[in-house]
Design brief:
The protein has 252 residues and is of the alpha/beta class. 36% of the residues lie in helices and 24% in strands. Strands 3-2-4-1-5 form a 5-stranded parallel β-sheet, sandwiched between helices. Strands 6-7-10-8-9 form a 5-stranded mixed β-sheet, sandwiched between helices. It is globular, with a radius of gyration of 19 Å.
Length: 252
């Protein structure tokens, strides 16, 4: 039976690799690496460095161009589903064409495969199609959320209080509601700046990498600075990945 390993590799620091992830990389015969274009070439390089450091020779590196997602359509959910299906096509081809019987393939996933990532849903779609026979395992990784709270030396939770995880898009549409502690993933429009209630923000970009940027403070005092830093960094690198924790100053 062919096998796929979906391996969480952390937020960007090579030292984020767990011992379980290192062992999993060493078990793989072939690796699928999705190329996101020249702007994000450093992400490919980091994956390749991890593979070179921990893979078992001989291994094969299979590169494929990551499909583009339609970011102009107002039908956001539909566009995401179509993009995930095109990714599933790549996973299916990798398993079918690049793995021999009883071989193991691996896909290295930023952070943890179970948090804000499409790899699991794509693999599950390939399973549902039934065109190739394989089994798969998931290796947990250090998330950007874990890296964020560690770098800011703060806890994700407070006593007897829940944490709400959402996206910048939904924060802009729905606001914070009754949540006192909110983790927001990839907020392209800095939706936190429009909050009228009092929140403290712990913000981080390129977590775990040499380009890491950290800002913390009351939202009204640091919102403009975060916007400026974010815009400058995106212009300089051509892409940005950021995460933040909002903490209500006067919990309900």
């Amino acid at each position: 039976m062919k096998r796929i390993l979906i391996i969480g590799i952390g937020a960007g620091d090579p030292d984020h690799l767990t011992l379980q992830a290192v062992k999993a990389i060493g078990r793989a015969d072939a690796f699928l690496v999705l190329d996101k274009g020249e702007a994000k070439h450093d992400l490919i390089e980091l994956r390749q460095e991890m593979i070179e450091a921990h893979a078992r020779e001989p291994y094969r590196l299979v590169r494929a161009r990551d499909p583009e997602r339609d970011r102009s359509t107002p039908a956001y959910a539909t566009a995401v589903e179509q993009w995930r299906s095109r990714r599933a096509d790549l996973y299916e081809a990798f398993i079918r064409d690049e793995l021999g019987d009883d071989e193991t393939g691996a896909i290295l996933v930023w952070g943890d495969p179970g948090l804000y990532d499409s790899t699991l849903s794509g693999i599950e779609e390939v399973v549902e199609r039934g065109t190739v026979m394989f089994d798969y395992d998931v290796v947990a990784g250090i998330t950007s959320v874990s890296a964020l709270t560690a770098r800011h030396r703060t806890s994700l939770t407070r006593v007897a209080r829940p944490v709400h995880i959402t996206t910048g898009r939904r924060l802009a549409q729905e606001g914070p509601g009754a949540a006192d502690d909110i983790v927001v993933m990839l907020d392209a429009h800095c939706s936190f700046a429009d909050l009228r209630e009092e929140f403290h923000i712990y913000w981080g970009a390129y977590l775990g990498t040499p380009d890491e940027i950290l800002v913390a403070g009351p939202v009204p005092e640091v919102a403009d600075r975060i916007r400026e830093l974010r815009a400058e960094a995106r212009e300089r690198k051509g892409w940005i990945m950021d995460t933040y924790l909002l903490r209500r100053l006067s919990p309900s």
